[in-house]
């Protein structure tokens, strides 16, 4: 199965859009007026052949998703989901239909989550612990880099101009440093 295409927001955040504007120009919103309600943007209104209960369920299914995630290509899935939702509420839904409804709604929700994780809302506060954990990750990466370098130097042996005694002293120092780092981590 092919990897899903990135949204315009994801392309802008990664910098790919700026590098290949011509390649992604078809994804830019057109100058034509869009639907008034943000949740139906790109999706449109329910089809005219739907019954009143199905149209109400259509709007309910659309409201369950993040605004702007549903597109013209999703109209058939929303229509099927709204008709199955009406059957479920009436109590006439079969097990296979219920599974299909669950699959469709789960797909809409996962797409909504993916879109909201790309561009957080401006009102969303930043978690103060994020900065702390980022600093811990940097320290862990630096410690790993130093450990790898020390192991490499041990394997190489004495450097040019370095006596065996100096090299042995350096190896003992590196070993003590490693043991100290491990004991201080385990005491936390």
Automatic annotation (TrEMBL):
<feature type="region of interest" description="Disordered">
    <location>
        <begin position="22"/>
        <end position="49"/>
    </location>
</feature>
<protein>
    <submittedName>
        <fullName>Uncharacterized protein</fullName>
    </submittedName>
</protein>
